[in-house]
Amino acid sequence: MMPRGPKFGVLVALPWLGCGTPHVTPEPTSSTGEPTAMSTSSGSTNTSADSSSTGGTAGGSEGVDSSGGTSESSEASQGESEAGTASTTVDMPVCGDAVVDPGEQCDLGFALNADEGACLSNCVLATCGDGFVRATAEECDDQNAVPTDGCHQCQRTRIVFITSEVYQGKDFMGLWGADQRCRSLAAQAGLANFAGFKAWLSDSKTAAGDRMYAGRGRYELVNGLLVAESWDALLAGELKHPINVTEKSETHENGVWTGTNPDGTIAEGSDHCFDWSSNDFKHSAYVGASSEASPSWTLIVSDLNPTSCGGGLPIYCFEQL
Q1: Where are the beta strands (DSSP E) in 200-244?
Q2: How much is the pTM?
Q3: Residues 196 and 190 sit within 8 Å (Cβ to Cβ)
Q4: pLDDT band of 89, cuts 50, 70, 90
Q5: Where are the alpha helices (DSSP H) in 90-229?
Q6: Cα separations (Å) of 113 from 64, 97, 106, 154, 309?
Q7: Residues 37-68, buried b or exposed e (16+ Cβ, 10 A)?
Q8: What are the φ and ψ backbone dihedral angles of 190, each rounded to 5 degrees?
Q9: Residue 217 φ/ψ, nearest 5 degrees
Q10: From CA 284, how far away is CA 274, in angstroms rounded?
Q11: From start to end of the chain, where are the E strands?
Q12: pLDDT digits (tens, 9 = 90+) for 248-275
């Protein structure tokens, strides 16, 4: 047997098997055709991808935060805008809101603004001559300055007269009876408000000044002559004309039953004809003089005053409300 020699193999390239040439991965190229850098491992590539992904997520998170911040910023801006709008919004003035707004003279509120009050319903201060009667300060408002038309300076004129008839002390049977004499004569004379007259007469308990309404307006005779500018002027003895005209517009100058001091208080020192219920000569009462424009109009300073109740004298009658 022949000895075996070394064996030799022959490598034959078989192109059709595709194994003759090593597989080479083509390098990436740029748009210019030049190779670009490439990661050396798939791990690096994945890491980069992950990193990109993470970065994208982070970027996304930042985007969310940014979006959230934008939302919060929008809300803040909206709030500021609304606050700005609220701060610049001005309520329109309303008469009756109890706030004195520009263009208003007063405003007491819907409940208190009134055409008869201090502040009119149109938020204008009440004044004499505005045509509205302010209940607490005015008795009338005829929107003119004529003093003889029954309303002057927003105060009503009242009539005063001396009676055309004379009476003894017992004829009245008290103050009420004297008032009735005044009303009866005023009605017969056709005077307006005839039921609103009272006698200027005091008794031992009640003063004439306390029985009367203290008018702030003028006191006139039935013929229009001015007696006094006001109640205060009357009590101060500042008469412009004596009270010497009757309800019939006739002149009557005489002594007058009063029983009253110039200030309207009770004249002490007599029994007022036994409180105007007696004509006995032992009773007496004080008198005034209808011819006088001084305090003597209601109380004559004389040794003959007080006088006996047996004689007949007139009385003064004053219009009230």
Answers
A1: 219-220, 226-228
A2: 0.66
A3: no
A4: low
A5: 175-188, 208-211
A6: 61, 10, 9, 20, 56
A7: eeeeeeeeeeeeeeeeeeeeeeeeeeeeeeee
A8: 75, 25
A9: -95, -170
A10: 8
A11: 151-152, 155-156, 158-162, 197-199, 219-220, 226-228, 255-257, 284-285, 287-289, 307-308, 316-319
A12: 999 999 999 999 999 999 999 999 999 9
Q: CA separation (Å) from 211 to 194, 207, 286, 321?
A: 17, 7, 18, 12
Chain length of the chain? 321
- Cα separation, 220 vs 318, in Å, equals 10
% the chain with pLDDT above 90: 58
Predicted confidence (pLDDT) per residue in 160-206, tens digit: 999 999 999 999 999 999 999 999 999 999 998 999 999 999 999 99
- What are 275's two structure tokens? 């409180």
pLDDT at 82 over 60: no
Domains of the chain: 94-138 (no CATH), 151-319 (3.10.100.10)
